[in-house]
UniProtKB/TrEMBL annotation:
Protein name (Swiss-Prot/TrEMBL): GntR family transcriptional regulator
Keywords: DNA-binding, Transcription, Transcription regulation
Gene Ontology MF: a single term: DNA-binding transcription factor activity
Transmembrane segments: none
Matches recorded under Gene3D superfamilies: Chorismate lyase-like, Winged helix-like DNA-binding domain superfamily/Winged helix DNA-binding domain
Keyword Transcription regulation: yes
CDD domains assigned: WHTH_GntR (cd07377)
Signal sequence, start to end: none
Source organism per UniProt: Mesorhizobium plurifarium
Entries under PANTHER family matching the protein: MANNOSYL-D-GLYCERATE TRANSPORT/METABOLISM SYSTEM REPRESSOR MNGR-RELATED, MANNOSYL-D-GLYCERATE TRANSPORT_METABOLISM SYSTEM REPRESSOR MNGR-RELATED
Length: 284
């Protein structure tokens, strides 16, 4: 006598969202996680999922499988999946909704890189823009006095300097001069590719991630050469940004100076006023 069985609890992921499940099966069949690479497995997995989001293989608002389902899809342990998804969630690529699950975040209209641990490339890409770069120069050299102070490296050390123009949907949005401590990114100047995120590269190759950043802004006029690179008139006021990004241990990981054209995309900054209490009583 056959006994009918009935599934209890939440339905299986592939029953709830067959299209997204098929997309993850497709990703899982293509993912090549190499335990011999310098980048940790969670970084490799994170980058693979992010690429699927960037290319549209994982559509905005589609549901992400559970951690256990992801373990099965990619053949990795739960801590690897948890770290990868946690990183994407922290960067706004994936949204976690209590009692509903995880979803691919929808594109947004402004930039948040000023108040997030993201570079402009990653922030604009996360919002669904097509980001491209025009790299003006990449080279290794001794540090300047400013770079020595920021990174705490001696004069006989080295930095990798990168000058780039970032474009969103074909329009220049920022011109950035970036410095990274040479001893932490060996050979970076030989492997960095055009239209590739610097943060993404150092995360994938060296396992380096940014925890926080200090940024300073002021209005400034570009030189004629800088204006030409940005595609604006020489008398066009731009936002000048100075930034120092730090890793989880508090060590400076990146220093840059940039011109930003806010007419291309506004900068969004959220401010929360802390409550003032006296003897436990709110006085705001």
């Amino acid at each position: 006598m056959e006994q009918a069985t009935r599934m209890r609890g939440r339905p299986r992921y592939d029953q709830e969202d067959a299209e997204a499940a098929e997309a993850f099966r497709s990703i899982g069949s293509k993912v090549q996680l190499n335990r011999d690479e310098a980048a940790p497995l969670w970084v490799q997995l994170r980058n693979q999922v992010e690429e699927a989001i960037n290319t549209g293989l994982l559509a905005a608002n589609s549901r992400i499988p559970s951690e256990q389902a992801l373990c099965d899809f990619f053949g990795v342990s739960r801590p690897v999946v948890r770290a990868a998804i946690g990183s994407l969630s922290n960067e706004g690529r994936i949204i976690k909704m209590p009692r509903k699950g995880m979803f691919v975040a929808a594109p947004r209209e402004h930039v948040d890189f000023m108040t997030a641990n993201l570079g402009v490339f990653d922030d604009l890409t996360a919002k669904g823009h097509k980001v491209s770069t025009r790299t003006l120069e990449v080279y290794r050299c001794p540090p300047s006095e400013k770079e020595s102070k920021v990174f705490g490296i001696p004069a006989n050390g080295s930095v990798v300097r990168i000058s780039r123009v970032y474009m969103t949907d074909g329009t220049p949005i920022t011109m950035t001069r970036i410095s990274l401590p040479g001893h932490r990114v060996p050979g970076l100047e030989n492997i960095l590719s055009e239209n590739q995120s610097i943060f993404g590269t150092i995360r994938a190759v060296f396992g380096l991630t940014v925890k926080r950043a200090d940024r300073w802004l002021r209005a400034a006029l570009p030189t004629k050469e800088e204006a030409d690179e940005m595609g604006v008139a020489a008398n066009t006021p731009l936002i000048e940004i100075e930034s120092i990004a730090y890793d989880a241990d508090g060590a400076a990981l990146e220093y840059y100076e940039a011109f930003y054209n806010s007419s291309v995309a506004r900068i969004h900054m959220a401010v929360e006023q802390p409550s003032a209490t006296v003897n436990g009583v709110d006085r705001t």
